[in-house]
Amino acid sequence: MCKRLWIIILLALTLTAMVFPSLGSQAKDIIDESIKGLDLTEWEQFLNTLSEDERALLPEGGAQSLIEDIVQGKLELSYDSVLEGLLSLLLHQFYKLLPFMLEITVLAILASVISNLQNNGQGVNEIIRFVLYALIALILCQSLFSLVSYAKNTVEKIGSLIQLATPILLALLISIGASSSAGVLQPDSAILVSGVGSILASFVIPIILVMTVLVFLSNLSPRIKLGGIAALMRSVASWTMGIVFTIFAGVISIHGLAAASYDGVSLRAVKYAINTGIPIIGGMVGESMNMVLSCTLLIKNAVGIVSLLCMAGIMLAPCINIIAYIFMLKFGAAVLSPISEGNISNFFNQLADSLKLLLTAVCGMSVIAIILIGIIIGAGNAAV
Q1: Tell me, what's the pLDDT at 268?
Q2: Range of 274's domain?
Q3: Which of 38, 152, 182, 233 could link 211 by a cystine bridge, Cβ 3.0 to 4.6 Å?
């Protein structure tokens, strides 16, 4: 009896040693074939359209190579490299803005000197001062308009990335049995692109642009009093973004958690039915199904991580650019406040406030997109 028991144990260990390598190679084959089966052509084209600053914050390689590196655990991404890239981009922006800031400072000092001259040509001095201030304001507004265009393009790029990533993620989500989560999150992704993105690009950002023009006009002359309208538009933009971001983030969070719980229960019920309902080979079928689902889940998470990396690259480049401009304007207002007229430093501070709203729009769109991708990544984990 004892010998028979030992023989059975040895046979079981031998079969286990034979099965485990085959299962490992089979899992690798499933992962490789699944990655090759993904249609990433449009994703590769999208990555090629990114600017140099946006690509600088992303790991090297295309979408497929990044997915393969994540699946194999070979993605080279560390805190030091990320911080080094952010610091390099920030210093690059400051270096680009330095001549611009010096030009503005010289013009502001010149306008202050002319306004302090007391002679018979007071009318001429007033005209020269007005022209210099208008020149300063036009230069700053031109830069701000370019930032507004940059921010609008960023919002549209985030929407394009969501349109590229969510069909792949939702298809992989359905393939692992999380059909309820996919059905709930698909309209959420459409609302993010068509709803939130359209509100920001077509309503909030134009309000910020008009508000900047009103700030320019109100500081052009004491007789032009448009500060109240500019403050009203600032409040409208702030409240609109706060309401939209709060509602959307709350809705997708509740949807994702509820659907993930249902998918987890239903898939476990299917596994239990297979294991207990099919005689003899039910356990083997259940384990094989579990292996396929786990491989698909791994690929889905890798696609989601690549989406998050692309999102971070798209978001951080304009955000750092805007932050550099805000710092420049605040620094310029502090330096010019003792030596120039109050309207110049006030104009600098008001432009900085406009850029803060622009920064909020870009960051808000990015954050809710990251929340959506994160919920899609986590939805399948509960199911498998």
Answers
A1: 56
A2: 77-383
A3: 233
